[in-house]
Amino acid sequence: MEQATIKAGNQSSPSQKRQLLKIYWWTLSFIKPYKGLFVTSLFLGLMIASAQIVIPKFIQMLVDDVLPSNDLLRYREILAVLSGVITIVIIATILKYVTDRKVQEWVAGDMQIGVFQKMRSLGYSFYEKYPVGEIYSLFHTEVEAIQKINRQYLPTIVQYTISFAVTFTFMAMLNWKLSLVFIPGILIYYLIGPYFERKSAEYAKKLADSHAELNKKQYDSISAMMELRAYGQEKWNLDQLLKQDQKTAAINVIFFKLINYRGAFRRVAVYFSGILMFVSGYYLVSKGLLTIGEFIAFTILYYKVMFDLTILITNLTEQRVLLHQTIRLYSFMELAPDVEEIEHPEELSQVRGGIEFRNIRFGYTSSSDVVKNINLSIQPGEKVALVGTSGHGKSSLIKLLARFYDPSEGTVYLDNVNLTQLSLKQLRESIGYVFQETYLYGDTIKENIQFGNENATDEDIIVAAKAASAHEFIIALPEGYDTVIGERGNKLSGGQRQRIAIARMILKNPRIIVLDEATSALDHENEAEVKKALDQLFKGRTTIAVAHRISTIQHFDKIVVVENGEIAEVGTYDSLLERRGAFYQLLMGEKRSAANT
Ligand SMILES: Nc1ncnc2c1ncn2[C@@H]1O[C@H](COP(=O)(O)OP(=O)(O)OP(=O)(O)O)[C@@H](O)[C@H]1O
Fold it and tell me: Does the keyword Membrane apply (predicted)?
């Protein structure tokens, strides 16, 4: 199956800036619940910036008034006020740090949970469409990028904007004519600066894409370790990883070169205006239009303004780089789930397990149908097997039952209620899926069974394990039910894993059981054990099984043959054999291939 990638949109389009702004607004929206604390932080920032500019003012007074007159009393007064101001700055800085930190950590937590909840809401179809490596990269790289925006860039940008505004105002008030020296510096910067900005943003985007691809490749390489070994393809895989790694490194080098050029150019602009300031300042002092104290104070303020401006521009640019990294995450957050619950869903007082597919048509894309003209009625407690050639739509049909997907046409009913009207929670609790490969956690056997019902007691777990023919092999293990079974249960055999999954399902106690090729990969010995366990599980429940081996479904109430996405035949095992139609052909085919092996 071809997998999609989360689109980052057309980055060269003119709407790019608007999109980045939208994304930035979205990242800030996480602060909303903490706006009280955020405003407190702004206020503290303003206090710090205002207090800091008082210092050059005092130096000016010291040089112009106190030193020439040798007025010691005034000198002490100035020192006392200066100490007071510095104390205020220190206290306000500590308070601001604590406030910012609280907001940042809460926002970071909310963000992580928000992304996780979104992932959940997108459901099964999302996991089928997108590669796990890419989803992993959302958490790994993109969430961290947004967290960095809120943790690092936002507080810095806010603080230095305030500081820049306050200092510049004060400097202009001190001598507005001398403040004009800024203009040539800014003009010089804007001659070439934006070019580097654009270029570095372009490379930031390339870097983000390359990182995502590298993450994906690393994930695939870890997941496919066994296959890579078995096929002797480790070198091929390593070469692929290396190539991607080198590509990322090359982009990184260009990106940092651009950042460096941009920084160097900015420094040229700052120093150019600085020289202009000294020349103009000397002229104004020599003409008696500026005192020496004012000139010193102005120089301090000038470098403070330049310092603030430099930090501001650097942070704004770096933040833009990070915003490019978050485009994919934003696009992901904008994805609409394929299946949604209605606002006031219906709850059945009791699920009996009657199912009906009426006039169903479904395809993964709008251009092609995978199943069509499906009309099938299943009574509560009935056992139905779906058989047919591989790739003809059996699994797709049963995905519609738990609303992993909705049909493009037609309706699926549970106990005569349209599935779209039902509570998703109740629907999914009523259905137990047993797949060929059930996910087992790397925890103990006990916990893996308890996963079916978190309230189950130790006795319930043992009863379920016995019913699933798993108890014997579990107690034979050195640590019995407390045995840790390794990642994905890899310390157990396929049949043992299946029986744990069945025990889990017995604990879950769903009204409907859906089996997808559950026994196709088992050897005969294992199959007999698993079959015994399944018979226990089926008791009193509606069962739909996708079966590869026809010999395993003789005792089913109804057999449905699916061909080219449509129902070709329905009947009991014997009646279908008698018909000598599609089912008979399948059985003959199976017998022939068994004889050949
Ligand atoms: N998530 C998906 N996205 C796109 N196409 C899919 C997806 N899952 C299955 N298909 C396609 O739908 C068709 C039917 O697949 P399905 O798995 O339903 O068949 P099946 O009869 O259950 O096959 P098998 O017996 O081999 O499991 C196939 O062509 C398959 O490639």
Answer: yes
What gap in Å lies between CA 288 and CA 300, rounded to an integer? 20
Q: Which two tokens stand for residue 83?
A: 């100490």
Q: SS3 for 377?
A: strand
**Is-contact 556 383, C-beta < 8 A?**
yes
Closest C-alpha residue for ligand 1 atom 9: 396
Q: Residue 259, CB half-sphere, CA atoms under 13 Å: how many? A: 18
pLDDT of residue 526: 62
Q: Are 351 and 402 in contact (CB under 8 A)?
A: no
Query: Which pLDDT value is given to residue 431?
Result: 92
CA of 370 to the centre of ligand 1 (A): 8
Which residue segments constitute the domains of the chain, with CATH numbers given? 19-334 (1.20.1560.10), 355-596 (3.40.50.300)
564 lines ligand 1 (CB under 6 A): no
Q: Which of 453, 428, 423, 433 is nearest to 348 (CA)?
A: 423
The sheet that has 371-378: what strands, in order across it?
A: 371-378, 355-362, 409-414, 417-418
Q: Which residue minimizes the CA distance to atom 16 of ligand 1?
A: 393
Q: What is the pLDDT of residue 490?
A: 66
Identify which of 369, 395, 515 to mutate to test ligand 1's pocket (most ligand atoms within 8 A of the CB). Answer: 395
Which H or E run contains 568? strand 566-571
Q: Which two tokens stand for residue 104?
A: 């940042």
Q: How far is the CA of 263 from the centre of ligand 1 (A)?
A: 54
Q: What is the pLDDT of residue 522?
A: 57
Instruction: Tell me what pLDDT residue 525 has.
Output: 57
435 lines ligand 1 (CB under 6 A): no
Per-chain mean pLDDT for the chain: 85
pLDDT of residue 479: 87
List the one residue out of 131, 178, 153 whose CA is nearest residue 311: 153
Is residue 168 a contact partner of residue 303, using CB atoms and an 8 Å limit? no
Alpha carbons 389 and 373: distance in angstroms, whole number: 18
Residue 143 to residue 109: CA distance in whole angstroms: 10
pLDDT number for residue 245: 92
CB 361 within 8 A of CB 407: yes
Is the separation of the CB atoms in 219 and 136 below 8 Å? yes
- What's the burial of 571, exposed, middle or buried (CB within 10 Å: 0-12/13-18/19+)? middle
Q: Is the CB of 368 under 6 A from ligand 1?
A: no
pLDDT of residue 164: 92
Question: Are 123 and 338 within 8 A, CB to CB?
Answer: yes
Quick one: the chain helix, strand, coil %, rounded to 5? Answer: 65, 10, 20
Q: Is ligand 1 within 6 A of the CB of residue 124? A: no
Complex ipTM over 0.85 = yes
If you search the block for the tokens 């008034």, which residue do you land on? 65
Q: How many whole angstroms from 520 Cα to the centroid of ligand 1?
A: 17
Å from CA of 360 to ligand 1 middle: 16
